[in-house]
Specification:
Blueprint: E1 6-7, E2 14-15, E3 22-23, H1 26-31, E4 49-51, E5 54-56, H2 59-70, H3 76-79, H4 102-108, E6 109-112, E7 117-122, H5 129-135, E8 145-151, E9 156-161, H6 168-177, H7 191-196, H8 201-220, H9 222-225, H10 234-255, H11 257-268, H12 275-294, H13 302-320, E10 339-344, E11 347-352, E12 361-364, E13 374-379, E14 385-388, E15 399-401, E16 406-407, E17 412-413, E18 418-422, H14 430-435, H15 447-474, H16 479-492, H17 496-515, E19 518-520, H18 524-531, E20 534-537, H19 539-543, E21 544-555, H20 560-570, H21 576-585, E22 597-602, E23 606-611, E24 614-619, H22 621-624, H23 630-635, E25 639-644, E26 647-658, H24 662-669, E27 674-678, H25 686-692, E28 702-703, H26 708-720, E29 725-729, H27 735-740, E30 743-748, E31 760-763, H28 770-802, H29 809-838
Parallel strand pairs: 20-27, 20-29, 27-28, 29-30, 30-31
Antiparallel strand pairs: 1-2, 3-4, 4-5, 6-7, 7-9, 8-9, 10-11, 10-12, 12-18, 13-16, 13-18, 14-15, 14-17, 19-31, 21-26, 22-23, 23-24, 24-25, 25-26
Length: 840
């Protein structure tokens, strides 16, 4: 336990903490009731720790403070008060034991030459400037660390260390012990997946070049806009024209390449997309301008060309901008550890999970994940293993597994150490097979993109017909007018306003959703969300709040001192059921000292201690001495049994706590959507759910005991019937259904922690705003359609002048950007106005 020592001086030197850390007496405790922990800011409970006249909620927070104080790093607390995170549940010494494997280390490193090694860690705990300051001063805590840099947006820390003075495991342990544990999973070894998440810097560079050229082109064309061109000496006008050509070359041959390539691909496939008329407009602008400048017959349209590309690329950047710290493509690799302990020829060693093969014997310890389907061989010290499948099947209650039974990958062992024999290689496990389903390869096309491409096809065809018709009409009368009419139609009718409407409207909606803790993978999700008519809801972790629980006590009434003793015992464990019991008892128990002694926790069974010469036992029915058959106790669900002095006193029933506002959400969605409850849990909650759906339960099918594949198949059947499905889930058991649905939304109470692959991530605190989010999505799509109408109106007005050959370069240069600016302004302001009305 972390109470056995503290870190002091230079890492990793240990010193006993009993010399410095003392418990506050009761009079001091009464004075500190309203105080908060100096390190993490949480409210102090009973028996806080004191150090240097500062109070701490737990030994973990106090220990980190000592490390910082002894290394002159207490400026950490000056940057942000209570900057740290709570450290009651400190990492175990074996958390990063897999980092002794040289093969694993070599795959994690970004660079190594034997003298210096560099690694990049994902650290979800980063949240403020104090975090950045401390992590960039890690070299003061260990001489083996040469330097570190923090990417705050991506919550990543790049560390350079000296392999001859520090190992990668020591670096990870150091970060964990100061409150910033690196998140290292099997996915961390996949460098290609990481590379795909990097920002598209090429688009940023192109937008920057376009902006530079656009600004200078406008400056050099300034005399033409003020009709001062006739007063400028002809040599200067020619020189400015040549400069404009030079500035236009990177715009055409670098910034425009994406549009030319897209148009080329469309021609190859005998299709017409929105980039075809844009590419034609760029070509027309450039060559007409080139002709006018070189023939000294005009100033050209190169400033308009620069503005066009800058606005187009700006729209793409606006659309692409998303949340770098989030991942929408997580799979089972994000969930599993890198290595596991196996026993071979009587020896234990670490092997990579990906290298597990049939017949290997794994040793799975308390709270470790089972990485592959395996057969139970033995349990060390217990009759059975308790496997928590909550994140795989949705079943909230751990399942007892006996010797000879099959255990599936993804379960978490909640008892002591067990030995398993691998029956399927990691790549062939149940969860891996789920991820190989075709649902995870879906590439639904954007409805707005389809509408835009259909519109652009007709638009481009008509524009070409009109431009050729205008040229043929004027050709017998005047060659110059015919040429001007032909090019003016192509320039004025360039559909840049149409192509900008969707990116800016949906991009603004994307940012608004993000501010409300609803993070969408891309703008296409908004239009798909607006079209949904069926909502499938998981129960555990989606409708229920995993951070809270409802507790009821069945048995003989407990006195105040007894409640205080049980509270003191329950607080000694980090098990979710123990936490729920402690939180329920706390308001009922007194503040008197309990005198609890000899506390011990037996993994998978419970807690025991001595109070007033009586033995307290809190845990399973057998552990507490309850005369209840094992099969009945397991079927009873989440129950914690209590005995005092060897006498069974009763049990605590722990039930799901439904999210705040869930009834209002159901009431708001039921009139417009068909609701379906699809749960991997058993039917014990059916009665409570029916009350929750009061008035709608007859229209809301509730299906329980659903496997991950069953959920996927059910959603697929809905889609085959033509339903537009929105799926809300939270775990691996929902991953297939989330991918198979039109829109998959992962509910998470920590958006930086693991969540399954999805189209969007919704913070649990914003769950009650889901109906408003759907309304805003529908309004955003309507605004885009209005932008199409507005853009079409501008084009018709421009064409009425262009076909007569009556447009001068100045008018063309003003009219074309003006239409784009107007559409962009309308789209962004309209979405903001609607959001203000809907999300009040």
């Amino acid at each position: 336990m972390c109470g056995q020592g503290r870190f002091s001086g230079k890492w990793p030197r240990n010193q006993p903490c009993s010399r410095d850390l003392t418990l506050i007496s009761m009079p001091e405790l009464e004075m500190a009731v309203e105080q908060i922990c100096y390190h993490c800011g949480e409210k102090l409970e009973d028996e806080p720790l004191q150090r240097d006249d500062k109070h701490f909620c737990c030994l973990g927070c106090a220990t980190v403070y000592e490390m910082l104080r002894d290394n002159d790093l207490c400026d950490y607390y000056q940057l942000n008060a209570q900057a740290g995170l709570n450290l009651r549940e400190r990492p175990t010494n074996d958390q990063y034991k897999f980092l002794v494997d040289e093969k694993v280390v070599s795959q994690l490193l970004d660079f190594s030459d034997g003298q210096v090694a560099k690694v990049t860690f994902f650290v979800p705990a980063i949240h403020c400037s104090s975090c950045i300051w401390l992590l960039e001063n890690l070299h003061k805590l260990h001489p083996g660390i040469a330097g570190s840099r923090v990417n705050f947006l991506r919550k990543e820390v790049g560390i350079s260390y000296l392999p001859d003075q520090a190992t990668l495991r020591q670096v990870a342990d150091l970060m964990a012990n100061v409150g910033y544990p690196p998140h290292i999973t099997l996915e961390s070894l996949d460098k290609t997946a990481e590379a795909r998440t990097k920002t598209d810097r090429a688009l940023l560079y192109k937008a920057g070049v376009a902006f530079f050229c656009f600004g200078n082109l406008m400056l050099l064309s300034f005399p033409e806009y003020l009709t001062l061109g006739e007063f400028v000496e002809s040599n200067f006008r020619q020189f400015f024209g040549y400069l404009n050509i030079a500035l236009a070359l990177p715009v055409v041959f670098y910034c425009s390449t994406d549009y030319f390539w897209s148009a080329y691909q469309a021609f190859r496939q005998r299709q017409m997309n929105i980039d075809v008329p844009i590419a034609l407009g760029i070509v027309a602008l450039f060559f007409v301008s080139l002709y006018e400048i070189l023939s000294h017959t005009g100033a050209g349209y190169l400033d308009s060309l620069g503005g066009l590309l800058f606005f187009l690329l700006g729209g793409r950047l606006f659309q692409q901008k998303t949340f770098d710290a989030l991942s929408f493509e997580r799979d089972y690799k994000s969930y599993f550890p890198i290595s596991v302990t196996i026993r071979q020829d009587g020896q234990e060693r670490m092997v990579q999970v990906a290298d597990l093969k049939r017949g290997d014997r794994m040793l799975i310890h308390h709270q470790e994940l089972i990485p592959a389907d395996a057969l139970m061989l033995k349990t060390l010290g217990e009759a059975s293993a308790m496997i928590d499948y909550s994140f795989v099947t949705g079943e909230a209650v751990p399942v007892a597994k006996h010797v000879g039974e099959l255990v599936y990958a993804g379960g978490r062992q909640t008892g002591g150490t067990i030995e398993l024999e691998v029956t399927k290689a990691f790549s062939q496990s149940y969860l891996t097979a789920l991820w190989n389903n075709d649902a995870f390869q879906k590439t639904d096309a954007s409805q707005i993109a389809r509408i835009t491409n259909r519109f652009s096809k007709a638009f481009t065809t008509n524009v070409l017909v009109v431009s050729i018709g205008a040229a043929l009409y004027w050709l017998p009368q005047d060659l110059t007018t015919a040429l001007r009419a032909f090019t003016s139609v192509l320039i004025i009718a360039c559909p840049c306003a149409i192509s900008l409407a969707a990116p800016f409207a949906l991009g603004m909606a994307l940012r608004i959703f993000g501010r409300r803790n609803f993070y969408l993978k891309n703008t296409a999700v908004i239009e798909q969300l607006a079209a949904t008519d069926t909502i499938v809801l998981d129960k555990t972790g989606t409708l229920t709040d995993t951070q809270r629980a409802e507790v009821h006590f069945d048995g003989q009434p407990l006195t105040g001192p007894e409640l205080a003793a049980v509270l003191a015992l329950a607080k000694q464990s980090t098990h979710p059921l123990s936490k729920a019991v402690a939180a329920w008892i706390k308001p009922l128990a007194g503040t008197a000292s309990t005198g609890l002694q000899a506390v011990s926790e037996i993994a998978g069974q419970g807690l025991q201690g001595v109070w007033a010469t009586q033995k307290l036992a809190l845990g399973t029915a057998k552990f507490a001495g309850a005369n209840i058959p094992e099969s009945e106790a397991e079927a009873a669900g989440s129950r914690v049994y209590l005995s005092i002095g060897g006498i069974y006193r009763g049990c605590f029933r722990v039930q799901n706590h439904y999210r705040a506002g869930v009834a209002e959400v159901i009431g708001a969605l039921a009139p417009t959507h068909r609701l379906i409850v699809l749960s991997g849990d058993n039917e014990k909650e059916r009665g409570r759910l029916e009350k929750l759906f009061a008035g709608h339960q007859s229209l809301t099918p509730m299906l329980f005991g659903q496997s991950p594949q069953g959920k996927l198949d059910f959603v697929q059947q809905l889609r085959e019937k033509g339903k537009q499905v929105l799926m809300l889930g939270d775990g691996l058991n929902d991953a297939g259904a989330l991918k198979q649905s039109n829109v998959g939304v992962a509910i998470s109470d920590n958006v930086l922690a693991f969540s399954p692959a999805s189209d969007a991530i919704l913070d649990g605190q914003s769950f009650r705003q889901l109906p408003q989010f759907i309304r805003l999505a529908k309004a955003s799509v309507m605004i885009i359609r209005l932008c199409f109408v507005l853009s079409l109106g501008y084009n018709l007005i421009g064409l009425s002048f262009a076909v007569r050959g009556a447009l001068s370069p100045v008018v063309s240069a003003i009219l074309m950007p003006l239409s784009s600016i107007t559409v962009v302004a309308f789209a962004t302001l309209a979405v903001r106005w609607v959001a203000g009305r809907v999300l009040r």
